[in-house]
């Protein structure tokens, strides 16, 4: 009997020890960092446990599952949205949110992730439905801003703060994508053609400027060359005139030079008519008289010929030089004098008559 009582006593003591251990374990809670736990006492909200060691009343307090307080990223599947121009597009969204109040996130909504997803879909359809496709593709910042404003206002009472909403992808129909690619290709071709035309324009402008400058430089060089040639010709004429003036030519020499120039005047197929001036006849007549006097003087006896005048005495600085052109002129004058009084000199005209 005593042994039975001892066993019962030991059993009661063991049960008590186990109860105490279990109570201690249930009364001590360790909350990790960036987590929060909601404590309920007999089914009512009591408090929110912060990260660290916390004590609760065992069997009276109930600790709900931990709530993650870190920022979370949720990507929702593509949602079909109809734009203002009646085009169906699929839009992928990504939401960055964070739980700020574990109590509201636990009691204000059953599943806040599902609530955020449905709210995002409805808001997205409202926003994109008032825009055409081009505005939706180019106005992502506007759509993101409106989505964030609506979500942040609604999820605030859920104890959630929406930090950022992004449109991950906007996929228009295949036919629209083909049209957009063609339009983009045409736009690129247009820009390429414009750039090519501008390049050709600049090239032609530069070429024209280069030709203009080259023409100006050639004209300046031609002008300077003509100026130098004119100056050289002027100096040559001055030199020849000064030499003729210093040589003091007589009429016989001038007549001889004129006779030498007549063949050059008559050269050329285009010279159909040339005129012999009357001064040439008078000059030849004078030359003929001179030559005749010289012939009469040569035929007279030596005694009857008057003594030739002595040339003036030369100065020390002068020297007598026999001029060959004078001798040649005398011979030419003698030949021309024999033809004085003959037919007029000239060249046949177009009709074969003498001019």
UniProtKB/TrEMBL annotation:
Lineage per the UniProt record: Bacteria, Bacillati, Actinomycetota, Actinomycetes, Mycobacteriales
Ranges of residues in domain Band: 26-184
InterPro entries, A to Z: Band7/mec-2_domain (IPR050710), Band_7 (IPR001107), Band_7/SPFH_dom_sf (IPR036013), Band_7/stomatin-like_CS (IPR018080), Stomatin_HflK_fam (IPR001972)
Protein name according to UniProt: SPFH domain-containing protein
SMART domains: PHB (SM00244)
Keyword Membrane attributed: yes
Ranges that cross the membrane: none
Family (UniProt): Belongs to the band 7/mec-2 family.
Source organism: Fodinicola feengrottensis
Gene3D superfamilies: Band 7 domain
Pfam families reported for this sequence: Band_7
Topological type in the membrane: Single-pass membrane protein
Keywords associated with the record: Membrane, Transmembrane, Transmembrane helix
Localization: Membrane
């Amino acid at each position: 009997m005593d042994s039975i009582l001892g066993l019962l006593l030991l059993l009661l003591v063991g049960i008590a020890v186990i109860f105490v251990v279990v109570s201690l374990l249930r009364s001590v809670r360790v909350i990790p960092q960036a987590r929060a736990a909601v404590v309920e006492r007999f089914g009512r909200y009591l408090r929110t446990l912060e990260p660290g060691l916390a004590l609760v009343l065992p069997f009276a307090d109930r600790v709900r599952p931990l709530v993650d307080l870190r920022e979370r990223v949720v990507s929702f599947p593509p949602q079909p949205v109809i734009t203002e121009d009646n085009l169906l597009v699929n839009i992928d969204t990504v939401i960055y949110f964070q739980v700020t109040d574990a109590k509201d996130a636990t009691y204000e909504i059953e599943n806040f992730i599902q609530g955020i997803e449905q709210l995002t879909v409805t808001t997205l359809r409202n926003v994109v439905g008032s825009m055409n496709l081009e505005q939706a593709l180019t106005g992502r910042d506007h759509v993101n801003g409106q989505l964030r404003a609506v979500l942040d206002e609604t999820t605030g009472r859920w104890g959630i703060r929406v930090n950022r909403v992004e449109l991950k992808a906007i996929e228009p129909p295949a036919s629209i994508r083909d049209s957009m690619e063609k339009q983009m290709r045409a736009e690129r071709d247009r820009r390429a053609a414009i750039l090519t035309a501008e390049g050709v324009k600049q090239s032609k402008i530069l070429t024209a400027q280069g030709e203009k400058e080259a023409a100006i430089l050639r004209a300046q060089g031609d002008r300077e060359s003509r100026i130098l040639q004119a100056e050289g010709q002027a100096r040559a004429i001055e030199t020849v005139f000064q030499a003729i003036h210093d040589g003091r030519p007589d009429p016989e020499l001038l007549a001889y030079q004129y006779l030498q120039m007549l063949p050059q005047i008559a050269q050329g197929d285009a010279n159909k008519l040339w005129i012999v001036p009357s001064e040439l006849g008078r000059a030849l007549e004078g030359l003929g008289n001179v030559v005749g006097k010289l012939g009469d003087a040569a035929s007279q006896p030596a005694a009857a010929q008057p003594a030739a005048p002595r040339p003036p005495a030369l100065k020390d600085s002068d020297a007598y030089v026999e001029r060959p052109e004078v001798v040649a002129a005398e011979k030419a004058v003698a030949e021309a004098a024999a033809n004085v009084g003959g037919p007029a000199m000239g060249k046949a005209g177009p009709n074969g008559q003498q001019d």
